[in-house]
């Protein structure tokens, strides 16, 4: 993964770029003191740009340590765009976090205490012709104290 920016291009943001990844990759973020409840009206928004067959998906680490990857994604685009995902409308598959590959469907996962939120296109980088770029991500959920979820 690489943080990238091209100062010679007007309005080019600083972004995370997957173009040089030699294997499947994932990036996740967590709050240092809290989990997040992604039930109800929770949403995730981001600014991204993909090229090639890359489909940027949401990944979650649940309170029990298991990982999920979303069925919905943001695909190839010619320019930067904003995506909004309503969490209640998504379906989830298991995510093998070691291989960064999807597994079986998960019915009704417990999203009331998510430890980490992130993203992946589940593919190796292909330079600028086949990559994912993420400028920013925003998570809209309810904060949950880490001590409340076991």
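-> sequence recovered:
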């Amino acid at each position: 993964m690489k943080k990238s920016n091209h100062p010679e291009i007007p309005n080019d943001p600083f972004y995370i770029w997957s173009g040089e990844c030699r294997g499947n990759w994932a990036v996740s973020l967590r709050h240092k003191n809290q989990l997040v409840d992604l039930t109800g009206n929770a949403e995730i928004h981001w600014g991204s740009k993909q090229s090639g067959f890359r489909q940027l998906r949401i990944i979650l680490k649940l309170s029990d340590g298991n990982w999920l990857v979303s069925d919905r994604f943001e695909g190839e685009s010619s320019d930067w765009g904003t995506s909004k995902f309503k969490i209640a409308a998504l379906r989830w598959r298991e995510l093998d976090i070691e291989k960064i590959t999807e597994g079986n469907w998960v019915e009704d996962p417990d999203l009331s205490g998510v430890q980490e939120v992130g993203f992946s296109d589940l593919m190796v980088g292909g330079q600028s012709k086949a990559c994912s770029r993420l400028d920013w991500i925003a998570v809209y959920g309810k904060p949950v104290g880490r001590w409340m979820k076991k």
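The mean pLDDT is 92.
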